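Q: Second attempt. The first request was missing the SMILES, so the protein and flavin-adenine dinucleotide are both included now.
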Amino acid sequence: MYDFEYHRAASVDDAKSKFGGADDARYMAGGMTLLPVLKQRLDQPSDLVDLGDLDDLRGISEDGGNVVIKAMTVHHAVNTSDLVRSKIPALAHLAGTIGDPMVRNRGTIGGSLANNDPAASYPSAVVALNAAIHTDQRTIAADDFFEGMFTTALDEGELITGVSFPVPEAAGYMHFPNPASRYPIVGVFVAKTADGARVAVTGAGACVYRVPEMEEALNANWSPDAVAGIKVSADDLNEDIHASAEYRAHLVTVMAKRALAA
Ligand SMILES: Cc1cc2nc3c(=O)[nH]c(=O)nc-3n(C[C@H](O)[C@H](O)[C@H](O)COP(=O)(O)OP(=O)(O)OC[C@H]3O[C@@H](n4cnc5c(N)ncnc54)[C@H](O)[C@@H]3O)c2cc1C
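A: Got both inputs this time. The predicted holo structure:
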């Protein structure tokens, strides 16, 4: 680990001001990704601005037809929330599949979305449910937020404050986990929304993506059978020691079918 200055922010404004006053700062939520990255000397920030005291950024509420989850809410809280379980059970289920108990008690939805790991679970829910990401500056639509591997639409120093998930008519999530880390090798979130069916895939490519041919089939027939015969292309999919691109493509169909059955 390289040396850095450590700050605890007292408010969102204080976090912004400490971030802006530093040479090359990073926000820290639960540190679940950031601290391993620093330990391995893969990043060398001048300052860390810890968001851990910002209770205003924790909590889950209902607002109109949306479930609103604030950025510092940990995965365990999403998994065990009565509101999420009753309104969007697939989202509560997804949160319960993330990592292990320590990760679920420290890792946050804001940190996960800002980091945009290609295998992160939440981006599939955010895209399939057509959620909106709120920051200290603006609201960003899910389809515009995830730009590529570890890259998002966030500007330098822009802070995620929460996410609004429209309550769908139906939704399901299923993933095929890496047996060691529990990250999805492939995860598929399906949702029947006010704008029609949406299918979002994580783990398979460089970044979460939608599957238009499955969405079209589900708009005609919302059932596992509708996607069973759809084979997605393996072009540009990830390939590593865990799974080939062809195997990941196969898993997209299998996980979509299971998510619909769930
Ligand atoms: C062993 C292990 C297994 C895991 N398995 C899974 C899994 O199965 N699925 C999955 O999705 N994830 C998994 N994770 C990741 C986990 O879900 C964390 O949510 C993720 O690592 C982010 O951690 P964090 O919230 O503590 O953010 P941090 O590590 O503190 O920060 C991550 C990044 O986000 C930035 N950031 C944090 N908060 C904000 C904010 N509010 N606004 C703007 N930028 C912000 C930070 O500057 C940093 O760049 C795993 C992690 C570990 C260590």
